[in-house]
Amino acid sequence: MSNLKSLIKEVLYEQKEKQLKVFYNVDIFLQDFKEQGQEEQPAPVQQEQPPEGEQPPAEQPPAPEGEAPPTESTNKKEIMLAEDIFKTKGQGSIVVPKEKAITILTLNDLLEFLDDQNTDNGTSVINDLVIEAIKSLSGQNTQQALEDILNKGDKLNIILDYGFDKDDSIGLQVNKNPGVDLATMIMRKDGEPMTGKFNLQVFNQTITSVFLKEIKWG
To answer: Does residue 106 sit in helix, strand or coil?
Structure first.
């Protein structure tokens, strides 16, 4: 019935059914590990004394001249570092299917939807660390404080607009450049940045009272 209704609107009244979209512009580089100089120093290891009457184990003889001492493989470390870096860059738009759009009621719902989406370049739009950072910047209590998520060398430049068009949308803009500790987030409306602090309540109310109502009954 709904498909027939949409078809009648499009053919007889030249009206196309509205679709909600997410317009994104992301340039992100995050390290999920402490930078050099921030590592916690391991506690000193105490040498165990051998029982009385026993001789301590003999030290290993030095490697023969011209041969390098055996070292552990660095492959595992390199893989770990690669997995602990999230890098993505791209801009475009993602259509939100109606059955999914009616379940997006808050900023957090929108972020969870984007967590499964890719840019046109094939990289993820955002990941769990980015979600935690945005939640923290929006004033929510998260599992990780912002200073535990972001390093000084990280880049977090994000523009997200959610609506039927950029000119009819609500969004957010995050700015954090490498070499600085400060990260900021402001709200956007109709594709333009707004002055003042990000207002989570207004953001969520716009989704439910405007976009959700129109997508359900429009």
So the answer is: coil
Which strands sit side by side in the sheet containing 85-95, from one edge to the other?
A: 85-95, 21-31, 155-165, 168-175, 184-189, 192-193
Contacts of 66 (CB under 8 A, 6+ apart): none
Q: Where are the domains of the chain?
A: 20-31+75-217
DSSP letter at 124 equals: B
For residue range 153-207, list pLDDT tens digits in order: 999 999 999 999 999 999 999 999 999 999 999 999 999 999 988 999 999 999 9
How many whole angstroms separate alpha carbon 177 and alpha carbon 157? 7
Kindly tell me if the per-residue pLDDT of 47 is higher than 70: no
For residue 179, is it left (φ>0), alpha (ψ between -120 and 50) or beta? Answer: left
